Amino acid sequence: MGSTSAHGENSTGEGLGRRDLIKRSAALGLIAVPTMSFLSACASGGDTTTKGPAKGAVSKENPFGVAKGGKMDVVVFKGGFGDDYAKAWEAAFDKKWGTTSSHLGTQEIAGKLQPRFNGGNPPDVVDDSGAQQIKVDVLAKGGQLADLSQVLDAPSLDDPSKKVRDMLIPGTVEQGTQGGKFVALYYVYTVFGFWYSGKLFKEKGWTEPKTWDEFLAVCTKAKDAGIGGLAHQGKYPYYINVVIMDLIAKKGGLEAMKAIDNLEPNAFEGNPAALAAVEAVYEVVEKGLLMPGTNGLTHTESQTAWNQYRAAFIPSGSWLENEQLKQTPEDFDMKFLPVPLLADSKLPFEAIRAGAGEPFIVPEKAANKAGGLEFLRSMLSREWSTTFAQQANSLTVVKDGVNPDVKLRPGTQSAVAAVKAAGSNTFNYLYPDWYSEMDTEIQNASNELMAQRIQPKEWIKRAQAAVDKAAKDPNAKNNRRS
């Protein structure tokens, strides 16, 4: 999900229609919006008549002035990570601050929250993720997000002599910045690439491919064995774009990635690395190496087929293991694979897309904004980061944020090993967070490509058109990567 994605949404083809219906019904007042009392609906966003005291005394221990005994309203996306971690966080927060937290775990983020943002009555903390995410760039442009730089500059709970920002892995702040302002805390440290079953590879005597030719060779062996080579989450082209964009970055180097984020006129057109990447993925389609039917499947359907050994590889982020816990056989031995290299690539095989996913926000009009900011500061402590690792089997953006006694599952262990092997060779695109419309248009082009309705050169043309359109956005001048 960036880093956000469709992960965790068990959607049917009717998902979008239903979401639109919820939005329209809410706008017409046909359905009641949950947790929105009559009083608070009448109150303006900043009015706290229904929420108790808004401010406590500011001190070093309480940098935002959280009021004791206030209320906290927390909404999280309940997808691949579940929401047990958030319940544990809320209990710890309530114990420390004497607050009373209300909790909602849902996949219908837009359906449940759009009316509340519109009504000036948003929650205090939101994990704004999943297929029904309210796009962060849209909220930022609408002035709906609190400036979180004050969290970065507050003392760390682990070491008050240091600021919170000193505790974060590189890239976290850059990723959550919109138009020059830090407004979203992307919390889950995610690596992206291919995944395979160690058990299947052992049984078949296949070795981990490091070049694209070796990758195609394994896919061909799989096909000969009656197994699909590559499964992908066809209904969500987000995932196949991970492969295309990783190939571009690895072949063309960081300059090729930055050209896309910076909306250069030659980001795709006239960029040989981009064309080579799209042609490489198209070759999988042309040679019949896709798992049959994968173009029509949701993420969970294709991932489950892969868990049933019906395909050798699948692309995803490192939330995959947690999302597929119930479908994964005990001895599957899930393994991570960096995207293999095209000839003459500038980055090494070990290079991976790695960065923060799962954006947490504090709405500007939150009734308990101080509580929301303190909640995020607490998330960036080792204690809460360890809670997340235990409950959600995933790493966070807190440096060394997991106690060594936490036992991770095989896929996550494999991802941690890949992060170590990559060293400083990590990269991460920002355009999906900065320009959600451009991201969607490129995904749509990939959908057509995988169905063989367009050729690679047409994909390049459409992707460049999406870049050129985004470049006309006046906000674009504030988003620059050096």
Description:
With 482 residues, the chain is of the alpha/beta class. It has 20 helices and twelve strands. A hairpin with a 2-residue loop joins strand 4 and strand 5. The two termini are 24 Å apart. Residues 1-52 have low confidence and may be disordered.
Helices, strands, pairings?
Layout: H1 15-28, H2 38-42, E1 71-77, H3 84-97, E2 100-106, H4 109-118, E3 125-127, H5 136-141, H6 149-152, H7 172-175, E4 177-178, E5 181-182, E6 185-197, H8 198-204, H9 212-224, E7 228-230, H10 238-252, H11 254-261, H12 272-286, H13 299-307, E8 311-317, H14 320-323, E9 334-337, E10 352-361, H15 369-379, H16 382-392, E11 395-396, H17 410-422, E12 426-427, H18 431-434, H19 436-450, H20 456-470
Parallel strand pairs: 1-2, 1-3, 7-8, 10-12
Antiparallel strand pairs: 3-10, 4-5, 6-8, 6-9, 6-10, 6-11
Helix pairs in contact: 1-4, 3-16, 10-11, 10-12, 12-20, 19-20
For the sheet with most strands, the description reads:
10 strands, mixed
CA-atom Rg in angstroms: 22 Å
Number of strands: 12
Name the helicity range: 40-55%
Catalogue the unreliable spans.
1-52
**Helical stretch tally:** 20
What is the 3D form? globular
Structural class determined from secondary elements: alpha/beta
Distance between the termini: 24 Å
Query: What is the typical, i.e. mean, pLDDT?
Result: 89
Beta-strand percentage range: 5-15%
Main attributes of the structure:
disordered N terminus; two-stranded antiparallel ribbon; single chain; alpha/beta; 20 helices; 482 residues
